[in-house]
Design brief:
5 helices; two-stranded antiparallel ribbon; globular; 151 residues; three-stranded antiparallel beta sheet; single chain; alpha+beta
Length: 151
């Protein structure tokens, strides 16, 4: 089972920023370990917005300390690039081919105005494994946690 963590930036990354993030995270995942055992880890960036860290738990389970190390590195990247990766009040959704990022309050207004509907595609960054990611990361508003929170 592959465990994943999704970090959503508060703005699109430039190509240069994306290259820097990917390089740093690839260097990190190449030496990432839990209690001296290497983690089978990978990183990807999707849509210039989402950083996805993955660990194959069938090889080695990540530990609390190893997860803390990844969080520290992501916080360093936040500082270097002047971005936010831990603001859970930013909601990402699709508007046609574009991905929009708005504060929670604006998202609520868009729902009330009917601009976000039950069929609007939202990003469920709470998925925790690859199976859920593939099935439910990009999903309709009505099928996500968003529908319960914003009901």
């Amino acid at each position: 089972m592959e465990r994943i963590w999704i970090y959503q930036a508060n703005r699109l990354l430039t190509i240069e920023e994306e290259t820097k993030v990917k390089k740093k995270l690839e260097e990190f995942t190449a030496q990432w370990n839990a209690h001296g055992h290497p983690l089978a880890a990978s990183v990807e960036i999707r849509y210039h917005l989402f950083i996805i860290l993955a660990v194959d738990q069938s090889v080695t389970m990540p530990s609390g300390c190893s997860i803390d190390k990844s969080v520290r590195l992501l916080k360093e990247l936040e500082q270097e690039l002047n971005i936010s990766l831990f603001d859970r009040m930013q909601i990402a959704y699709r508007e046609g081919d574009d991905i929009k990022i708005v504060p929670r309050s604006t998202f609520e207004e868009l729902i009330q105005k009917g601009e976000v509907t039950k069929d609007t595609i939202v990003f469920n960054n709470l998925v925790a494994d690859r199976v859920a990611f593939n099935a439910n990361w990009e999903t309709s508003f009505q099928n996500s946690w968003h529908a319960q929170v914003f009901a």
